[in-house]
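#dry-run=false #mode=assembly
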Amino acid sequence: MGTYQYKQYPYRRPAELGRDPGARRAVVIVGAGPVGLAAAIDLALQGIGVVVLDDNDVVSVGSRAICWAKRTLEIFDRLGVAERLLAKGVTWQVGRVYHRDRELYRFDLLPEGGHKMPAFINLQQYYVEEYLVERAREFPGLIDLRWKNRVVGVERAADGVAVTVETPDGRYRLEADWLIAADGAKSSVRTLLGLPFEGHTFEEKFLIVDVRLDADYPSDRRFWFQPTFDPGQSVLIHRQPDNVFRIDFQLGWDADAEAERDPEHAMQRVRRVVGPDVRCEYEWCSVYTFRCARLKRFVEGRVLFAGDSAHVVSPFGARGGNGGVQDVDNLCWKLARVLRGEAPAELVASYDRERVHGADENILNSSRTTAFMTPKTAVERQLRDGVLALAADFPFARGLVNSGRLSKPCHLQGFAGFAADDGSVAGPMRPGVPCDDAPVTGVDGRATWLLNHLGGRPTALVFVADRRDAAAIERTIAACGIADLAVVALTDRPCGDLPLPELVDREGLTRARYGGRTGVTYLIRPDQHVLGRWGEWNPAALGAAWRLCLGGGKA
Amino acid sequence: MTHLRRDDGFGGRGDEFYEQLVAAHRGLDEAGSGALNARLVLLLANHVGDLAIVAEAIATARRGLGAQGTAPDQER
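#status=ok
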């Protein structure tokens, strides 16, 4: 592979080798991919120490997950890595859909401004993992990263888990209160526990080729149905950094995977896409089929599944890696609170409910896309082609064209553990919804973003007119009984003398997005989801909402 | 006078509609699918009722389909 230099991470002989397991760990994470590393960092930020076991000693071989969605970037920003990702990644928000050689329409994934994060960046998984590894190394006392440590045994007990780990120097045992299995689609933890991973396999083969091109193709996602330049059913092109392009060819079920995987053959296909004159160099290719499947439960006693070990989808829609990072966001603050004794284990059970829902949403969307892309009968093809024929002139038909429903944040409205919405606040930020970002400034005029002030701990977001309101709020903070509540006061113009951290909503976008007026109060979960909202400062309701949340929906 | 609707009439639930439609054909052979489509057209046309709109839909659907029933893309 040309553009990326793989580093080997050093294997170190674990201290436990040839000895007793030693002290029991709070959390062991299996897998140092994007999901396992994000979980390690998130837990470290909450003060929880983790051991991360990975059977390899390099980052992802091949670009694999490349599309990182806005919500994922917001989570990565909370973890302290988003700026590096943004600096390196290719930002995009427009998708273009073609039928044969004609552009049918474009869709814009973030038509409004006023958000810190873009709709999407494209960045090869190996960069994402590299940056996450470097971030994890900033927590030397809390994150113990162990390369070439393969889990070969898992034993479950009522109050913990023991794993047997194989290293180049032999085997050892490690005990933990909780185990996070972030070991991918072929999860060894899942296999060792004998858990069924059921779902639907789609009868279609795809070829992805990464090539370095001297071409100034747009950053937009471009998707062709029945392209004129390839015999296959569809082609998808994504731009990645370093002038690397991901070209995804739909081969058909009967394609010869071995022949297609041959780089020379793959480059012949690429040549037909880019034309004869463009300089292009082969980077990586892979032939894949896929299925949509998930575990019945993501919480199996003290074993927690996150990412591809828990659920897999087709790549169209970028719902794999993004879904996995959302798992981490949902899980880690809950696990930290349970480990610190601040919440019962039911809080972790809410991870199961909420992320099974997220996975089902991803599987549904991904399955629909696949059904549209791979018509199986003559009539399915007629219906699909009918939609494509009408799409150029009829907006309704464009809505039916399905080249991927791209990853959007999962909403948790109506789930247990969120406060009921009493209707006293306007706008779409209902309990269960992930918070919208908005530009704000500090009292000193320095520009910042709302989301950078929410998250990590329960936060009250209060719309305040002046010092008189703030004083009343301050008096009642103690009354709500939330030990580590953070409070952020939103003002129209700087007061400067508030006894609370103040953000100024100069552009009015926070008010617009949150139905903000003086007195409106939001309680935000540590994962930046709205837990409750009220038309006026109400310490009793805030306290009750937080207790309901910590109890996993049990008041 | 009203015209044939061009914008999304499914209230953002188009994917759900398409999934239902494809599922309805599952297990049918070509003749069965043809029969299902014919019945669907009759039911939906009756529901629309307005003959001017139905005529517009027929003309739109027919556009680009040649005398021998060539596919629209081949004609362009």
